[in-house]
Every structure is written in C-alpha cells, then in structure tokens.
Amino acid sequence: MDRSVHARKLRLDASRRIIAISDIHGNDALLKRLLQKVDYQPQNDVLLLLGDLIEKGPHNLQTLQTIRQLCAQGNAHALMGNCDFVCKNIVHRYNLDFLKKVLCTRKASLLHEMAARIHQTIDADTDMEQLCDALMASFSDELRWVDALPQIIHTDRYIFVHAGIKEEEHFGDDFREVLTYPHFLLHAPAFTRYVIVGHMPVSEYCHAIACFHPIIDERKHIISIDGANMIKKAGQLNALLIEDDRFSYESVDDLPLVRVRCDVAPRNQDPLFITWRESEVRILTRGTQRDECLHLSSGKRMWIDHAFLHERDGHWQADDFTTYQMPLQRGELVSLVSCYDRFALIKKAGILGWAHRAHLCL
C-alpha cells in the first residue's frame, strides 16, 4: 500500500466563503444543523471537511452518504482522518488483526453498520478476510471513495489537514504522519500560510479554563478546530468561517439547555482544567463521593468527584476535570453536561465550568 502523502491543490475564487469542519464522527444530524446554522450555500461557498468523518458516532453510514452527496455538488471537499482509515484497512486488507481488536471495542463504527446491513456481526471470532470480501461486495463504492480521499487540501493561502504537517512545502513522508500528528499546536513551527487542523480536541490545549471553540494562533499561523464532538460529553461541532481572509466560527452541540435561577458572581482565583495529557493525580484522602487529590503536573490539591477518577496502568487519572466555577446571570440559558451530587457541570459560550444545582432550573 502506497504511504505517500496525497495532497490536492485547489484554486479558489477569493470572493468565496470557506467553511471548514472537522471531526464529524458519524453525527449526521449535528453536521446538518451546523450547515444550516452557517447558511451553507453550495453555489457560493466552499466546504472543506477535515477528516474523521466517521467512527464513534451514531449514524456513520448515513453521515458518509450525506458527505458524498455534498461533495458531488462540486464545492465540497473531504479529507481523510485517522478514524476514516478503517475503510483503507478493508480495501487493502491491511493490518486486519489490529482492525479486529479496534472493532471489538469500538461498536460505533461504519464497519459494524455495514456488517449489520448484510446481516453479519463483527466479534473476536470473525474471519476478517471473509469480512473484507462481504463488505467489498456490498459497499465497494463507499469504501473506495473514502480510500481515495486526499490527506491534504491546500490553496495559495491555506493548508487544510486532519492532524498536522511536518513542513509547509514538503508536507510529510508518510500519510500516517499527517493523520496522527500529536498535539500539533504545541510542537509545530510557525508557517507562512495558515494551517487549519482538527484531530486534537482544542480543550487539550487549555490549562486554566477549558474552551471548546477553535483556537487561532496568529503567531504560528495555525488554527485548531476540533471541538471534541462525540469524544467528550461537553464537546461540540465547530465550523471555521473564512471570508476576505477574516476568521470567525459557529458551533452546535447535543446538550440540553437549562435556565439559571439567580446571579452568581465569579469566585475563581486560580482555576485549573485537567487535560488528558496531564491527567495523573495522587489520591491523598478518600471520601464517600469525592477524594482529595494532588494533581501531579500542577502541584495543586483539590477534591475530585469519583465520576472523574479512573485508574489507568496502575495510576489514577482525572482528565476533563475543572475547578472553574461559572459566573451566572439570572434567566440566561446554559448547556447542561452532567450532574454530580449537589453540583452540575455546564457549558456557556463554549467554556466549561461547574455550578451549584440549586442555581439551575433542573
């Protein structure tokens, strides 16, 4: 299988608005809501879908059909993401033992949906060669369409890629690099053209207060737009809008809205958000519903609800935990993420924080 990077050059009319969306993850309904919110007009706009089109969401096959229809209209273009690679696995019969392990733990998958359509299941006993034969017999067009997607789309002013690039002119030697570049915004150099990426949830770059809106780094010329849709409960699907070289964004999520009962003044002196990358904690004092913990990366002590604590490889982790108390105004609407005892995790304007349940109309 050819592992070279497949890049496609687009020549765009400068008057056209560019809409970039990444990490749809099989959430067809949310994609359609977002396109409606930004008033996508195929005859006037250019739509770029930056990979992870499928996998982990509820309607992968329908999402793929929607995206193929959008691309057939002529002004929409899709890229491959690392999650979309499952199609390449089937088409090229590549690394099938590993693919089986993934599918045995990932039930929300395009391949599970395809298998179900032909009255098959995928489990530890599945003959993967026979599965490839069966899926290619029934879904060859869909699988080959994803397999043929480029990994990079670039213009004179912008480079669109799922995870990242090694260099601006020489994008990379192996397409797996541009599909999986870890924490690109942290490690990449500065570029002359703007590089727009998904892959890594933007909240992973937050330390004090978590925000799920796109991050625009004007120094490095990097824009990270993955809002953690289908990856984190507080996640959202973001659209980056580029018009006359100006950037803006819109977002949608599946969270319910609740109304605020009373004003709550900000009280945070030194808030902390614990990312997956720096999630290790040491438990100091056990409690009935929460434990006192030491966050090893920051050195801060805090009480963490048991819902956020889990053990991984013999170490305690507490990723996606925040100490930020959200300031509130009576009558406003906020998104409800989860409830824990007397507290609620909420999101407002893309920002994650907690509130007392008594302050919300639950």
From TrEMBL:
This is Metallophosphoesterase. Residues 17-172 form the Calcineurin-like phosphoesterase domain. Pfam families: Metallophos. It comes from the Bacteria.
